[in-house]
Design brief:
By secondary structure, the protein is an alpha/beta fold. It is built from 8 helices and 7 strands. Bound molecules: NADP nicotinamide-adenine-dinucleotide phosphate. NADP nicotinamide-adenine-dinucleotide phosphate (NAP) binds next to helix 1.
Length: 254
């Protein structure tokens, strides 16, 4: 097993893609700090699954709609690193936490806009900046975007615009942090059947069929289609991948 016992911080690791990322990293020998917004029971389930996969795991609460708690959050990461992992710094920052919402442009409000701005763009920007002093040189940063920055999905004007910002931001991270040997990349999933956007894919069989038909592989994504790619990007094998947007969508709308 290569590269073992490095430490990842996966935001939004209590469910969906973040949970699978945490498990996939543990399978490669890494330890993980996950965050959850309000769902502590699911965060505890992730801890159990990561431990079953051979990793150590801790869960911290993080609400990104209100960024006034970010400094306090960084302090709790430092404490957790010390107490749980006997470490000062971590190695992989996975900015994954986020919510969906189908909000037509014609009815979108400033409140909607500001919430998505904080969670999907400003929160990622400043969490990354504030993490730098406790991120090891040679670290990997992976920011989650979406297929809907390349193609359009009505109702996603706010959400996808913020993710578009993340894609530009990631290129600047790669450029400005390269001197520290830090790689920064984007993973952009297509539609994945999780709790995302009120579990809209799971709850709407017609939508699921329609989205499946857009993929050459004839299905929507599952969480375990994504986590393994994130774990790969954290591996030695991916050391020369930098500043890239990697779409993991089964080739939807290719
Ligand atoms: N699923 C898809 O089809 C899809 C497609 C493209 C991109 N993505 C992106 O992939 C990422 C993960 O999505 P997912 O499908 O795994 O979603 P999910 O199953 O709904 O899980 C969302 C995770 O983010 C946390 N979270 C939600 N709102 C938050 C907030 N305001 N502050 C901090 N944390 C928050 C949740 O914590 P709690 O459990 O405590 O609520 C949970 O851990 C998101 O960035 C999303 O935009 C998803």
């Amino acid at each position: 097993m290569e590269n073992t016992h490095k430490i990842a911080l996966v935001t939004g690791g209590s469910r969906g893609l973040g949970r699978d990322m945490a498990i996939s990293l543990a399978r490669k020998g890494h330890n993980v700090i996950i965050t959850y917004a309000g769902n502590k029971a699911e965060a505890d389930n992730t801890i159990k699954l990561v431990e079953e996969a051979g990793g150590k795991c801790a869960a911290l609460q993080l609400e990104l709609k209100d960024l006034s708690g970010l400094d306090k959050f960084i302090v709790s990461v430092k404490t957790t690193l010390k107490e749980k992992f006997n470490a000062e710094k971590f190695d992989f920052l996975i900015n994954n936490a986020g919510m969906g919402g189908s909000i037509p442009f014609t009815t979108a409000t400033e409140k909607d806009f500001d919430e998505f701005l904080n969670v999907h763009f400003k929160g990622v920007y400043f969490l990354t900046q504030k993490s730098l002093p406790i991120l090891n040189d040679g670290a990997r940063i992976i920011n989650l975007s979406t297929g809907t920055t390349r193609f359009t999905n009505p109702g996603y004007s706010i959400y996808a615009s913020m993710k578009g910002g993340i894609e530009v931001f990631t290129k600047y991270l790669a450029k400005e942090l390269g001197a520290r040997g830090i790689n920064a990349n984007v993973v952009a999933p297509g539609p994945v059947e999780t709790d995302f956007n009120n579990a809209t894919i799971r709850n709407n069989p017609q939508l699921k069929t329609a989205l499946s038909n857009l993929s050459p592989l004839g299905r929507v994504g599952q969480a375990d289609d994504i986590g393994s790619v994130v774990a790969f990007l954290c591996s030695e094998d991916a050391k020369w991948i930098n500043g890239q947007r990697i779409e993991v969508s089964g080739g939807i709308n290719v």
